[in-house]
Amino acid sequence: MIEVKNLVKYYGRHRAVDDLSFVVDTGKVVGFLGPNGAGKSTTMNMITGYITPTSGTVLIDGIDMGQKPEKAKAKIGYLPEIPPLYQDLRVREYLIFTAELKKMGRKRRDAVVHDVMEKTGILDVSERLIRHLSKGYRQRVGLAGALVGDPDILILDEPTVGLDPAQIMEMRELIRNLSRDHTILLSSHIMQEISAVCDEIIVINQGRMMAAGTPEELTRQIRRKNGIKCVVKGEREKILPALHALEQIQRIEEAQEPAEEGLVSLIIHGGEEEDVRERIFFAMADISCPICEMTTPNASLEEAFIALTQGEAERLEEDGQLEEEVG
After folding, report:
1. Residue 201 is part of which domain span?
2. pLDDT value, residue 300
3. Average pLDDT in the 58-66 region?
4. 188 and 210 inside one domain
5. Distance (Å, rounded) from C-alpha 102 to C-alpha 82?
6. CA–CA separation, 56 vs 37, rounded Å?
7. Which of 102, 153, 177, 225 is the most buried (most CB within 10 A)?
8. pLDDT value at position 261?
9. Averaged over 221-236, what is the pLDDT?
Protein backbone atom coordinates (compact mmCIF):
# COMPACT_ATOMS: atom_id res chain seq x y z
CA MET A 1 0.00 0.00 0.00
CA ILE A 2 1.11 3.57 -0.74
CA GLU A 3 0.02 6.34 1.60
CA VAL A 4 0.84 9.95 0.78
CA LYS A 5 0.19 12.50 3.53
CA ASN A 6 0.21 16.29 3.02
CA LEU A 7 3.01 16.16 0.45
CA VAL A 8 4.52 19.52 -0.56
CA LYS A 9 7.40 20.27 -2.92
CA TYR A 10 8.84 23.69 -3.74
CA TYR A 11 11.34 24.51 -6.48
CA GLY A 12 12.41 27.98 -5.45
CA ARG A 13 9.16 29.92 -5.17
CA HIS A 14 7.26 27.53 -7.41
CA ARG A 15 5.02 25.10 -5.53
CA ALA A 16 5.07 21.98 -7.72
CA VAL A 17 3.08 19.80 -5.28
CA ASP A 18 0.61 21.38 -2.89
CA ASP A 19 -0.56 19.48 0.23
CA LEU A 20 -1.28 16.27 -1.68
CA SER A 21 -2.76 13.28 0.17
CA PHE A 22 -4.02 9.95 -1.20
CA VAL A 23 -3.91 6.18 -0.66
CA VAL A 24 -3.26 3.38 -3.17
CA ASP A 25 -4.66 0.15 -1.75
CA THR A 26 -2.88 -3.18 -2.11
CA GLY A 27 -3.69 -5.01 -5.35
CA LYS A 28 -5.10 -1.96 -7.16
CA VAL A 29 -4.06 -0.38 -10.45
CA VAL A 30 -4.44 3.36 -9.87
CA GLY A 31 -4.09 5.94 -12.61
CA PHE A 32 -2.34 9.17 -11.72
CA LEU A 33 -3.86 11.62 -14.15
CA GLY A 34 -3.13 15.25 -14.90
CA PRO A 35 -2.07 17.66 -17.66
CA ASN A 36 1.58 18.34 -18.44
CA GLY A 37 3.15 20.21 -15.51
CA ALA A 38 0.53 19.02 -13.02
CA GLY A 39 3.13 17.57 -10.64
CA LYS A 40 2.78 13.88 -11.51
CA SER A 41 6.46 13.10 -12.07
CA THR A 42 7.53 15.20 -9.07
CA THR A 43 5.10 13.28 -6.86
CA MET A 44 6.29 9.93 -8.19
CA ASN A 45 9.91 10.91 -7.62
CA MET A 46 9.05 11.68 -3.99
CA ILE A 47 7.13 8.41 -3.57
CA THR A 48 10.13 6.44 -4.84
CA GLY A 49 12.58 8.39 -2.69
CA TYR A 50 14.40 9.87 -5.68
CA ILE A 51 13.81 13.41 -4.41
CA THR A 52 13.00 14.67 -0.92
CA PRO A 53 9.70 16.46 -0.25
CA THR A 54 9.72 19.95 1.23
CA SER A 55 7.23 18.59 3.76
CA GLY A 56 4.84 15.68 4.15
CA THR A 57 5.17 11.91 4.46
CA VAL A 58 5.29 8.90 2.13
CA LEU A 59 4.55 5.47 3.63
CA ILE A 60 5.27 2.28 1.69
CA ASP A 61 3.51 -0.63 3.39
CA GLY A 62 3.69 1.43 6.57
CA ILE A 63 7.42 2.19 6.17
CA ASP A 64 8.33 5.88 6.21
CA MET A 65 10.35 6.68 3.08
CA GLY A 66 12.04 9.59 4.85
CA GLN A 67 13.13 7.56 7.89
CA LYS A 68 13.89 4.15 6.37
CA PRO A 69 14.48 4.80 2.66
CA GLU A 70 16.42 1.62 1.87
CA LYS A 71 13.76 -0.63 3.40
CA ALA A 72 10.93 1.27 1.67
CA LYS A 73 12.68 1.32 -1.72
CA ALA A 74 13.15 -2.46 -1.60
CA LYS A 75 9.37 -2.77 -2.02
CA ILE A 76 9.22 -0.53 -5.12
CA GLY A 77 9.98 -1.07 -8.80
CA TYR A 78 10.19 2.24 -10.67
CA LEU A 79 9.95 2.93 -14.40
CA PRO A 80 10.69 6.63 -15.04
CA GLU A 81 9.34 8.39 -18.12
CA ILE A 82 12.81 8.00 -19.70
CA PRO A 83 14.26 4.67 -18.48
CA PRO A 84 17.91 5.04 -17.32
CA LEU A 85 19.31 2.38 -19.63
CA TYR A 86 22.99 1.81 -20.41
CA GLN A 87 22.99 1.85 -24.19
CA ASP A 88 26.26 -0.10 -24.63
CA LEU A 89 25.17 -3.05 -22.48
CA ARG A 90 23.32 -6.05 -23.79
CA VAL A 91 19.83 -6.58 -22.36
CA ARG A 92 20.86 -9.52 -20.18
CA GLU A 93 23.97 -7.67 -18.98
CA TYR A 94 21.90 -4.65 -17.99
CA LEU A 95 19.43 -6.76 -16.01
CA ILE A 96 22.25 -8.65 -14.28
CA PHE A 97 23.78 -5.30 -13.36
CA THR A 98 20.40 -4.16 -12.00
CA ALA A 99 20.12 -7.34 -9.91
CA GLU A 100 23.60 -6.74 -8.50
CA LEU A 101 22.63 -3.19 -7.55
CA LYS A 102 19.74 -4.71 -5.61
CA LYS A 103 22.27 -6.95 -3.80
CA MET A 104 20.91 -10.15 -5.29
CA GLY A 105 23.02 -13.30 -4.92
CA ARG A 106 24.49 -14.94 -8.03
CA LYS A 107 22.50 -18.18 -7.66
CA ARG A 108 19.18 -16.37 -7.58
CA ARG A 109 20.18 -13.62 -9.99
CA ASP A 110 20.27 -15.60 -13.25
CA ALA A 111 16.88 -17.20 -12.60
CA VAL A 112 15.32 -13.82 -11.72
CA VAL A 113 16.73 -12.16 -14.85
CA HIS A 114 15.39 -14.94 -17.06
CA ASP A 115 11.99 -14.68 -15.36
CA VAL A 116 11.61 -10.91 -15.84
CA MET A 117 12.71 -11.17 -19.48
CA GLU A 118 10.08 -13.84 -20.02
CA LYS A 119 7.37 -11.74 -18.27
CA THR A 120 8.16 -8.65 -20.35
CA GLY A 121 8.61 -10.45 -23.67
CA ILE A 122 12.28 -9.61 -24.28
CA LEU A 123 13.92 -13.05 -24.23
CA ASP A 124 14.35 -12.88 -28.01
CA VAL A 125 16.50 -9.71 -27.72
CA SER A 126 18.40 -10.68 -24.56
CA GLU A 127 21.81 -10.64 -26.30
CA ARG A 128 21.28 -7.45 -28.30
CA LEU A 129 22.79 -4.10 -27.39
CA ILE A 130 20.19 -1.80 -25.87
CA ARG A 131 21.14 0.98 -28.30
CA HIS A 132 19.96 -1.18 -31.19
CA LEU A 133 16.49 -1.79 -29.75
CA SER A 134 13.29 -0.03 -30.79
CA LYS A 135 11.61 2.41 -28.41
CA GLY A 136 9.02 -0.23 -27.49
CA TYR A 137 11.64 -2.80 -26.58
CA ARG A 138 13.62 -0.24 -24.56
CA GLN A 139 10.48 0.49 -22.54
CA ARG A 140 10.12 -3.24 -21.92
CA VAL A 141 13.75 -3.48 -20.79
CA GLY A 142 13.14 -0.58 -18.39
CA LEU A 143 10.06 -2.35 -17.04
CA ALA A 144 12.03 -5.58 -16.68
CA GLY A 145 14.60 -3.66 -14.61
CA ALA A 146 11.82 -2.38 -12.37
CA LEU A 147 10.60 -5.96 -11.87
CA VAL A 148 13.96 -7.34 -10.76
CA GLY A 149 13.58 -8.35 -7.12
CA ASP A 150 9.82 -8.94 -7.49
CA PRO A 151 8.73 -5.69 -5.75
CA ASP A 152 5.24 -5.45 -4.27
CA ILE A 153 4.66 -2.04 -5.85
CA LEU A 154 5.29 -0.78 -9.39
CA ILE A 155 5.49 2.96 -10.12
CA LEU A 156 5.17 3.59 -13.86
CA ASP A 157 5.65 7.13 -15.15
CA GLU A 158 4.19 7.57 -18.67
CA PRO A 159 5.06 3.98 -19.68
CA THR A 160 3.70 4.30 -23.24
CA VAL A 161 5.12 7.73 -24.13
CA GLY A 162 6.66 7.72 -27.61
CA LEU A 163 5.33 4.28 -28.55
CA ASP A 164 3.40 3.52 -31.73
CA PRO A 165 -0.22 2.25 -31.48
CA ALA A 166 0.74 -1.43 -31.67
CA GLN A 167 3.41 -1.01 -28.98
CA ILE A 168 0.95 0.89 -26.77
CA MET A 169 -1.53 -1.99 -26.96
CA GLU A 170 1.23 -4.48 -26.10
CA MET A 171 2.37 -2.39 -23.11
CA ARG A 172 -1.19 -2.06 -21.80
CA GLU A 173 -1.67 -5.82 -21.99
CA LEU A 174 1.63 -6.33 -20.17
CA ILE A 175 0.56 -3.94 -17.39
CA ARG A 176 -2.77 -5.74 -17.03
CA ASN A 177 -0.92 -9.04 -16.64
CA LEU A 178 1.45 -7.56 -14.05
CA SER A 179 -1.48 -6.20 -12.06
CA ARG A 180 -2.33 -9.74 -10.93
CA ASP A 181 0.74 -9.78 -8.67
CA HIS A 182 1.61 -6.12 -8.08
CA THR A 183 0.07 -2.90 -6.79
CA ILE A 184 0.54 -0.37 -9.61
CA LEU A 185 0.53 3.43 -9.67
CA LEU A 186 0.45 4.50 -13.30
CA SER A 187 1.05 8.08 -14.40
CA SER A 188 -0.38 9.38 -17.65
CA HIS A 189 -2.23 12.24 -19.31
CA ILE A 190 -3.74 9.88 -21.92
CA MET A 191 -7.32 9.07 -20.99
CA GLN A 192 -7.61 5.92 -23.13
CA GLU A 193 -4.62 4.44 -21.34
CA ILE A 194 -6.03 5.20 -17.89
CA SER A 195 -9.50 3.85 -18.65
CA ALA A 196 -8.07 0.72 -20.28
CA VAL A 197 -5.99 -0.53 -17.34
CA CYS A 198 -6.92 1.30 -14.11
CA ASP A 199 -9.31 0.36 -11.31
CA GLU A 200 -9.25 3.88 -9.83
CA ILE A 201 -8.10 7.34 -10.85
CA ILE A 202 -6.47 10.21 -9.00
CA VAL A 203 -6.66 13.56 -10.84
CA ILE A 204 -4.25 16.35 -9.94
CA ASN A 205 -3.63 19.80 -11.40
CA GLN A 206 -1.22 22.53 -10.34
CA GLY A 207 0.01 20.08 -7.69
CA ARG A 208 -3.43 19.86 -6.07
CA MET A 209 -5.87 16.97 -5.73
CA MET A 210 -8.87 17.51 -8.02
CA ALA A 211 -10.75 14.23 -7.67
CA ALA A 212 -10.37 10.53 -6.90
CA GLY A 213 -12.53 7.51 -7.66
CA THR A 214 -13.32 4.93 -10.31
CA PRO A 215 -13.64 6.09 -13.95
CA GLU A 216 -17.41 5.58 -13.63
CA GLU A 217 -17.61 7.71 -10.48
CA LEU A 218 -15.73 10.59 -12.08
CA THR A 219 -17.84 10.61 -15.22
CA ARG A 220 -21.03 10.36 -13.13
CA GLN A 221 -19.86 13.34 -11.08
CA ILE A 222 -19.42 15.41 -14.25
CA ARG A 223 -22.78 14.28 -15.66
CA ARG A 224 -24.45 15.58 -12.52
CA LYS A 225 -22.59 18.87 -12.88
CA ASN A 226 -23.79 19.05 -16.50
CA GLY A 227 -27.39 18.82 -15.28
CA ILE A 228 -30.50 17.10 -16.57
CA LYS A 229 -32.07 18.04 -19.89
CA CYS A 230 -35.83 18.19 -19.47
CA VAL A 231 -38.37 18.87 -22.22
CA VAL A 232 -41.85 19.58 -20.83
CA LYS A 233 -45.15 20.25 -22.59
CA GLY A 234 -46.80 23.33 -21.19
CA GLU A 235 -46.35 27.03 -20.49
CA ARG A 236 -43.02 28.38 -19.20
CA GLU A 237 -44.84 30.63 -16.69
CA LYS A 238 -46.40 27.55 -15.12
CA ILE A 239 -43.42 25.16 -15.33
CA LEU A 240 -40.61 27.35 -13.94
CA PRO A 241 -42.28 28.30 -10.62
CA ALA A 242 -43.08 24.64 -9.95
CA LEU A 243 -39.44 23.67 -10.52
CA HIS A 244 -38.03 26.59 -8.52
CA ALA A 245 -40.20 25.47 -5.60
CA LEU A 246 -38.10 22.28 -5.32
CA GLU A 247 -35.37 23.01 -2.77
CA GLN A 248 -33.14 20.27 -4.25
CA ILE A 249 -32.80 22.25 -7.51
CA GLN A 250 -29.93 24.73 -7.51
CA ARG A 251 -30.42 26.42 -10.87
CA ILE A 252 -32.31 26.15 -14.15
CA GLU A 253 -30.99 27.12 -17.60
CA GLU A 254 -32.52 27.34 -21.04
CA ALA A 255 -31.32 24.50 -23.29
CA GLN A 256 -29.19 25.63 -26.24
CA GLU A 257 -31.38 24.04 -28.89
CA PRO A 258 -34.88 25.55 -29.07
CA ALA A 259 -37.81 23.28 -28.25
CA GLU A 260 -40.70 22.59 -30.56
CA GLU A 261 -43.73 24.80 -30.31
CA GLY A 262 -45.65 24.11 -27.11
CA LEU A 263 -42.60 22.55 -25.41
CA VAL A 264 -40.16 24.05 -22.91
CA SER A 265 -36.55 22.76 -23.00
CA LEU A 266 -34.48 23.26 -19.83
CA ILE A 267 -31.21 22.17 -18.20
CA ILE A 268 -31.86 21.53 -14.51
CA HIS A 269 -29.04 21.36 -11.94
CA GLY A 270 -29.40 19.67 -8.56
CA GLY A 271 -26.76 19.18 -5.89
CA GLU A 272 -23.81 16.94 -6.75
CA GLU A 273 -25.18 14.15 -4.56
CA GLU A 274 -28.84 14.74 -5.48
CA ASP A 275 -30.81 12.74 -8.03
CA VAL A 276 -33.73 15.09 -8.65
CA ARG A 277 -35.38 13.26 -11.55
CA GLU A 278 -38.15 11.72 -9.46
CA ARG A 279 -38.97 15.04 -7.82
CA ILE A 280 -39.12 16.74 -11.22
CA PHE A 281 -41.49 14.04 -12.49
CA PHE A 282 -43.96 14.47 -9.61
CA ALA A 283 -43.72 18.28 -9.72
CA MET A 284 -44.69 18.30 -13.41
CA ALA A 285 -47.44 15.72 -12.81
CA ASP A 286 -48.94 17.96 -10.10
CA ILE A 287 -49.35 20.82 -12.59
CA SER A 288 -50.48 18.53 -15.47
CA CYS A 289 -47.43 19.30 -17.63
CA PRO A 290 -46.21 16.03 -19.16
CA ILE A 291 -42.47 15.40 -19.53
CA CYS A 292 -41.65 14.52 -23.13
CA GLU A 293 -37.90 14.01 -22.56
CA MET A 294 -35.62 13.70 -19.54
CA THR A 295 -31.98 12.82 -20.21
CA THR A 296 -28.64 13.09 -18.46
CA PRO A 297 -26.00 14.22 -20.99
CA ASN A 298 -23.26 11.65 -21.50
CA ALA A 299 -19.79 12.54 -20.23
CA SER A 300 -16.60 10.79 -21.26
CA LEU A 301 -13.50 10.47 -19.10
CA GLU A 302 -11.90 13.10 -21.37
CA GLU A 303 -14.72 15.54 -20.61
CA ALA A 304 -14.43 14.81 -16.90
CA PHE A 305 -10.68 15.42 -17.05
CA ILE A 306 -11.09 18.74 -18.87
CA ALA A 307 -13.83 19.92 -16.52
CA LEU A 308 -11.75 19.08 -13.44
CA THR A 309 -8.43 20.52 -14.60
CA GLN A 310 -9.53 23.56 -16.63
CA GLY A 311 -11.93 24.65 -13.92
CA GLU A 312 -9.14 24.67 -11.34
CA ALA A 313 -6.76 26.58 -13.62
CA GLU A 314 -9.41 29.24 -14.24
CA ARG A 315 -10.07 29.53 -10.50
CA LEU A 316 -6.36 30.00 -9.78
CA GLU A 317 -6.06 32.68 -12.45
CA GLU A 318 -9.05 34.52 -11.02
CA ASP A 319 -7.53 34.35 -7.53
CA GLY A 320 -4.14 35.50 -8.80
CA GLN A 321 -2.45 32.39 -7.38
CA LEU A 322 -1.23 30.87 -10.63
CA GLU A 323 0.83 33.87 -11.64
CA GLU A 324 2.26 34.22 -8.14
CA GLU A 325 3.37 30.59 -7.96
CA VAL A 326 5.09 30.40 -11.32
CA GLY A 327 6.24 34.00 -11.60
Report:
1. 2-216
2. 61
3. 95
4. yes
5. 20
6. 20
7. 153
8. 86
9. 82
